[in-house]
């Protein structure tokens, strides 16, 4: 390698990189305030639009480069799984081969640190639950040595990480039986496969009859799901009986910025991750179905029923900001815009008053008194200088369901 081809490296504190990301974000917001100032609209300044557009492009490039400074190869995390698999092979008595793919894929260092425990849970589950003992594998015509594959790849602005095994696959009947025993599904209900697989993500859910050092306590998969949701990510389960199971994790490339749809409900602004938005529409009165038994609402859209949950019931406010949500709850859905979002539990609709627009927002963590904001993933700083609650749609669905049950209980007690 010639001197011209050699690349030099600098060791920089992670805190300095984080500070740089914050400053670039603040720079972006300040530039937006200047270039979109109302006073400029009344002036005819030659070349201003071109200069403003160039400034925006340069800031976007600065954001991209600043974000890349915090990216590290995911292989560093994958390599930590090698020793774990050797220990698991010894504990379970199963010969296991760990295959690593896409180790050069880069991901935010903050995300890497948060992924270690969830990934360890998935590898342990694959070794203990997924892979069969050697004798059982041979009898099934499989190689004696089981295989666990860790893969990583960048797809757009997301990192896709998969943990797959070539074991026995999930036992649908055992999962469904346990779900019925725990009341997750009715005795006569026959849920589809995706719903059955989702049961293993419930807290305390386990089909293992015995408790071991590795499994049987009903902890693990719900921990994984919560950790992935905290990273603004999502996960999916795919399995085939006798062929194996695959867990897919989809995580944002960086946590510093978020492409979002900004909406207004009553007097508050909310930022919804753009990649979870399925559709936006204003329903007609005939499309709205209200069930008086549980005070729930659904909207018929393209042949499907979409459950609707109102943000006002969660944050207890109305359009006048009085803190009494009841009057605003009575507003017909036909007077509002429905934003349909996708979650692991299926789509649901959020009624809002206005779609402000789509923009990249600067994310700040929920700290201090803001830490307990229900359904929040962080604080979004908007180009207008305003702030919005960045919504975590997974937590939001859970919180709204809980709020609805609480309200129903109060009504029953009257």
In brief:
With 414 residues, the protein is α+β, with helices and mostly antiparallel strands.
How does this structure look, described?
With 414 residues, this protein is an alpha+beta fold. The chain has three domains: 55 residues; 181 residues, 2-Layer Sandwich (Heat Shock Protein 90), CATH 3.30.565; 157 residues, OB fold (Dihydrolipoamide Acetyltransferase, E2P), CATH 2.40.50.180. The strands form five sheets. Strands 2-4-5-7-6 form a five-stranded mixed sheet. A five-stranded mixed β-barrel has the order 8-9-18-17-16. Helix 4 runs antiparallel to helix 8. The chain starts with 13 loop residues before the first helix and ends with a helix. The relative contact order is 0.10.
Give the SSE map.
Layout: H1 14-35, H2 48-68, E1 71-73, H3 75-92, E2 96-101, E3 106-108, H4 109-130, H5 134-139, E4 146-155, E5 158-165, H6 172-181, H7 193-198, H8 221-230, E6 234-240, E7 244-252, E8 257-265, E9 268-273, E10 277-281, E11 288-291, E12 296-301, E13 304-308, H9 311-315, H10 326-329, E14 337-341, E15 348-352, E16 354-364, E17 376-381, E18 387-391, H11 393-413
Parallel strand pairs: 2-4, 9-18
Antiparallel strand pairs: 1-3, 4-5, 5-7, 6-7, 8-9, 8-16, 10-14, 11-12, 12-13, 14-15, 16-17, 17-18
Helix pairs in contact: 1-2, 3-4, 4-8
